[in-house]
Design brief:
Its EC number is 3.5.1.25. This is N-acetylglucosamine-6-phosphate deacetylase. Its cofactor is a divalent metal cation. Keywords: Carbohydrate metabolism, Hydrolase, Metal-binding. With 391 residues, the protein is of the alpha/beta class. It has two domains: 82 residues, Urease, subunit C, domain 1 (Roll); 286 residues, TIM Barrel (Alpha-Beta Barrel). The chain has ten helices and 21 strands. The strands form five sheets. Strands 6, 9, 10, 11, 12, 13, 14, 15 and 16 form a nine-stranded parallel sheet that branches. α5 crosses α6 and α8 packs antiparallel against α9. It starts with a strand and ends in an 8-residue tail after the last strand.
């Protein structure tokens, strides 16, 4: 369909005071017009419940639907890319956790070769390397034997693949600040994470070009009132965008409210989803090592360490709203803010000229927010049966 008009019960468009009735005209994969109230003509599609939001952008997806993207085969990549729109996600960064540098290089080149053959679905915006330049003290579920310093040679090997878009590292490691500068100079977004750094060291990383903090409060030094660490600087420094895994297991409701209050307009909702996401309880893998998904809660290593999540990004938006966060702010944290941070201002918003990546979010019977229809470049890529729309 070259051009069509959607009328929405509520439109979550950036720059509006809050979601309200509105309409969108799509033409040739791009948003052509946006308006409030009744549409100027008979709509091709009317969404009578829920809200129409920008397609969600997830900067941290290790895997989903049974597949760990670091070592998934082509069929596994096809599954993840084609099914992520079920969760409202229209663009994402596949995330490879700690491994030997040469192993990561091979995974990056394999992913690069797969990109031209991927099906319609969520856009792949590059790769997020979460390690191996992390702190042994804050390694979480990462393999300590593979942690290493970010030497110029190691960075050159990874950057040469042309696939690295985001790197999580601990700036206190030897060579850490030089690595931040090198990565930033190459257009790579740098995130402080799995780090035992002091607030001063994090500020130095921001001076060097770091602009993000990986999964706020998790696997990092904290918010001690006399010895502030990564989390404190993430909340206080306007240059930094804290990522938040809002499944209410990684971070409590009170801590999540603190994050939204302190980092208004900077917070980025992420899933940190592992292969277990979207799957029944059982045994899966993360970074080549086993994890167990219990009946309730996130995946775990054998020693009880949290290993990624089973969170959906649409559910994270719903969790934020349930905590009292304004719906527009919650949607922005999962769309516009990460899109801008990754250098894609054409994504994550409903405004003329932006890509027509959209998702229709509706509470389910239990009250959880769920995507019921999703479009990428104006084309429908996910539609739940019995949507309740009118044409």
């Amino acid at each position: 369909m070259t051009s069509y008009l959607i009328a929405a019960h509520a439109l979550a468009a950036a720059g509006r005071p809050g979601p309200g009735p509105g309409w969108v005209r799509v033409a040739d994969g791009v948003i052509a017009e946006v308006g409030s109230g009744d549409p100027p003509a008979r709509p091709d599609l009317r969404l009578d419940i829920g809200m129409l939001a920008p397609g969600l952008v997830d900067l941290q997806v290790n895997g989903f639907f049974g597949h760990d993207l670091a070592d998934a085969d082509e069929a596994g990549w096809h599954t993840v890319v084609s099914r992520l729109p079920e969760t409202g996600v229209t663009a994402f960064l596949p995330t490879f956790i700690t491994a030997p540098v040469r192993t990561q290089e091979a995974a990056l080149r394999r992913a690069k070769g797969l990109l031209p053959r991927l099906p319609a679905g969520a856009r792949v915006l590059g790769i997020h390397l979460e390690g191996p330049f992390l702190s042994e003290r804050r390694r979480g579920a990462h393999n300590a034997a593979w942690l290493t310093d970010p030497t110029p040679d190691a960075l050159a090997v990874l950057l040469d693949t042309g696939m690295v878009r985001l790197v999580t590292l601990a700036p206190e490691r030897p060579g850490g600040l030089d690595a931040v500068r090198t990565l930033a100079e190459h257009g790579v977004l740098v995130s402080v994470g799995h780090s035992d750094a002091t607030a001063e060291q994090v500020a130095q990383a921001a001076d060097a070009g770091a602009r993000k903090v990986t999964h706020l409060f998790n696997a990092q030094s904290g918010v001690h009132h006399r010895e502030p660490g990564v989390a404190a600087q993430a909340l206080a420094d306007p240059r930094l965008h804290p990522g938040l895994i809002l499944d209410l297991h990684h971070v409590s409701a009170a801590a999540a409210r603190l994050a939204f209050n302190a980092a208004a307009g900077r917070l980025v909702l992420v899933t940190d989803a592992a292969a277990a996401a979207g799957m029944p309880p059982g045994r899966y893998e993360l970074g080549g090592e086993p994890i167990e998904l219990p009946a309730d809660g996130p995946p775990l290593r054998a020693d009880g360490t949290i290993a990624g999540s089973a969170l959906r990004l649409d559910a994270a938006v719903g969790n934020a709203i349930a905590l009292g966060v304004d719906p527009q702010t919650a949607v922005d944290a999962a769309s516009r803010v990460p899109a801008d941070l990754i250098g894609r201002p054409d994504l994550g918003r409903i405004e003329p000229g932006a890509a027509a990546d959209l998702t229709w979010l509706v509470p389910d019977d239990a009250g959880a927010l769920r995507a019921r229809r999703t479009w990428v470049a104006g084309e429908p890529v996910w539609s739940m049966p019995d949507e309740g729309t009118t044409r």
